[in-house]
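Hey, resending since the last one bounced:
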Amino acid sequence: MLRPKIVGYLTFSLLIISNANIALAQTEPLPNSTEVNSTEVNSTENQRENVKHIANSAELEVIDSFLEMHTGPGRAYPVFFVVEQSERIIVLSRRPDWYEVKTVGNNSKTGWVKATQIVRTLQNTGEPVNLPGTSYGDFAKNRWRIGFFSGQLKGDTLNNSDVVGASLAYYPLSWLGAEVETAKFFSNDARGTQIGFNLIVEPFSRWRLSPALIVGAGQTKINEQPRIVPLEFEEESHQLAALRLNYYAGRNFIIRAEYRQISVDATPNSEELDIWSLGFSTLF
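The structure tokens again:
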């Protein structure tokens, strides 16, 4: 069984991180913006006057296949122009769920784009856009993630073993994912493999620095012994609990740090293993 104090530590750590991360979760409005009259009107020119104008415009690169420009801030307004991938746009103003933009070039066009498409653009720094009404969680709308990690294992039998591994995750919901992973560990005393299936709960996936709780189960196998040493087990099932921090760094790239506690069902006593690791994931 997993040690109760470790599970409690993971939960408590998540609460601390959640409180500390509130500042990162809040989206600041663009600087030097002014509020204007919001009376509903029909013409596009009057609509521009009724939104919050942004003095310091942001130039963005489109990374989706295309971006649709509407004649007004709503689905009822027709699409009159399509911005293609790698082209650039400038943000002019905002309404709830919509942004007024213009294309960069000689024959520039001005129109309205849904916020859900704006999040699929990049700043000059290569980072996803960070505007009011958008977030890194929106940028990471891709449901599949492939990851790689390395770290060190602490435990009685496998103490100070190096660990490398890979994972594949699917997120049916923005805050919930399922992950399969495989890892290899090696030291002077023993070498082996781990395979497992994990459930990931990421309640604050819209945050740029997003904590996640992980529970899972799998198999731990020692398949090579360079030296003759007494071992508590050779192949046993295991359960794990983990705390992972995801940092949405830009494009389809996440840097992750993780601590996990593994309980191996060895006979006569279970063996407790701790793994600290760093890695990255890419979205697709």
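The longest strand covers residues 209-224.

Sorry for the duplicate.
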